[in-house]
Design a protein that fits this description.
By secondary structure, the protein is of the alpha+beta class. It folds into two domains: 3-226, Rossmann fold (3-Layer(aba) Sandwich); 241-365, OB fold (Dihydrolipoamide Acetyltransferase, E2P) (Beta Barrel). It contains nine helices and 22 strands. Bound molecules: adenosine-5'-diphosphate (ADP) and magnesium ion.
């Protein structure tokens, strides 16, 4: 089932929770809605489900306008973080519930409901536990029952709101992989909410990054990570360092000196330079690089994270070095980003990749992602 969200706005008592969101979801796609707490993810999911109504805009299921339809008419499946199972019902009764409560004319025969529920329990690898009660299951098992329950009604769209949010990291990682496998096996169009970027990047076909009720960027995990279109996306996804800079005639200036980076299409004026801590090279001399004093260094797994203080204004950035690098506290160090982006303080973001310091590279203007 394809889904089209068109210019959706949701206002609660004068507070705009969703601001003109547009998004097309392809049939069979697994989409992650990713954003910090309060960015509007749950609100958008509830509007798609029909649990709440739009202030303006339209939601289409296929060619059909679903905006005014009820939850039942939309036939969506849900899994929520704290969507408790019915405690007084067994696992099997929980899974078959959605079909049992259907009106007689659309309800399958009891034997068929049982067959389908058992088949789903097999899919979520809970065969043998059908007569247990929810309090006899682990958290991960309960969420698998919740998923089987959501799938039992043969939903047109599957909606998951931080379904693994309450589980510990190890179980989360396992369930994440397993959810992707189930998704590939059943082919449901699915929308998955998370505030965990790792979960979104690992699981989704496309990621929708949300911030303050707005859609910041839509793209594949690679696009989002490699080509963030805004300072928010750059700093929200993955590790990042940033510095206030100035653009003059396409040259990037840090305080009173150039740093060997050019951005020919950037308008003159203040801007912010972003780079990933691991996308840098250490240089010897400093005729066009970033230099500073090491103020802290810590080992993180296989690398060393080094914090550097730069210039009189004492801006701090972090870079990543091999563990054997001798960067000692209070020593001077000079580096150059190998990939970076400059976002003018006002106006459109710029796109720039893999420059070689001696060459000039045409930078491409990238319009804000259409929302
Ligand atoms: N029923 C409501 N009434 C008033 N404000 C709401 C309501 N539901 C959500 N909000 C507000 O809308 C914003 C987005 O909330 P939500 O969609 O739950 O964010 P997220 O799921 O991304 O954490 C928040 O500021 C929240 O307080
Ligand atoms: Mg939420």
């Amino acid at each position: 089932m394809e889904l089209a969200i068109r210019n959706v706005t949701k206002i609660f008592d004068g507070f705009t929770a969703l601001d003109n969101i547009s998004l097309n979801v392809r049939s069979g796609e697994l989409i992650a809605l990713l954003g910090p707490s309060g960015s509007g993810k749950t609100t958008l999911l509830r509007l798609i489900a029909g649990l709440d109504f739009l202030t303006s805009g339209q939601i289409l299921f296929g060619d059909e306008d679903a905006s005014a339809k009820s939850v039942q008419e939309r036939n969506v499946g849900f899994v929520f973080q704290h969507y408790a199972l019915f405690r007084h019902m067994t696992v099997l009764e929980n899974v078959s519930f959605g079909l049992k409560i259907r009106p007689a004319r659309s309800r399958p025969p009891a034997a068929e409901i049982r067959r389908r529920a058992l088949e789903l329990l097999d899919l979520v690898q809970l065969t043998g536990l059908e007569n247990r009660y929810p309090n006899q299951l682990s958290g991960g098992q309960r969420q698998r029952v919740a998923l089987a329950r959501a799938l039992c009604i043969e939903p047109r769209v599957l909606l998951l709101d931080e379904p693994f949010g309450a589980l510990d990291a190890q179980v989360r990682r396992e369930l994440r992989r397993w959810l992707r496998e189930i998704h590939d096996a059943t082919g449901h169009t699915s929308i998955f909410v998370t505030h965990d970027q790792e979960e979104a990047l690992e699981l989704a076909d496309r990621v929708v990054v949300m911030n303050k009720g707005r859609l910041e960027q839509i793209g594949t995990p690679d696009e989002i990570y490699d080509n963030p279109v805004s300072p928010f996306v750059f700093s929200f996804i993955g590790e990042s360092s940033s510095l206030p800079v100035k653009i003059t005639n396409g040259q990037v200036w840090l305080q009173d000196r150039t740093i060997g980076l050019t951005e020919p299409n950037a308008p003159d004026g203040p801007a912010t330079l972003f780079f990933r801590p691991h996308d840098i090279e250490i240089v010897d001399g400093c005729g066009g690089c970033i230099a500073g004093t090491v103020v802290a260094s810590r080992r993180v797994a296989g690398t060393k994270h080094v914090e550097i203080e730069i210039g009189a204004e004492q801006h701090r950035v972090e870079i990543e070095l091999p563990v054997e690098h001798p960067a000692a506290t209070r020593s001077r160090i000079a580096f150059r980003p190998k990939k970076w982006k400059v976002f003018p303080a006002s106006g459109e973001p710029l796109y720039h990749t893999a420059p070689a310091p001696a060459e000039t590279h045409p930078a491409t203007m990238l319009g804000r992602v259409a929302v």
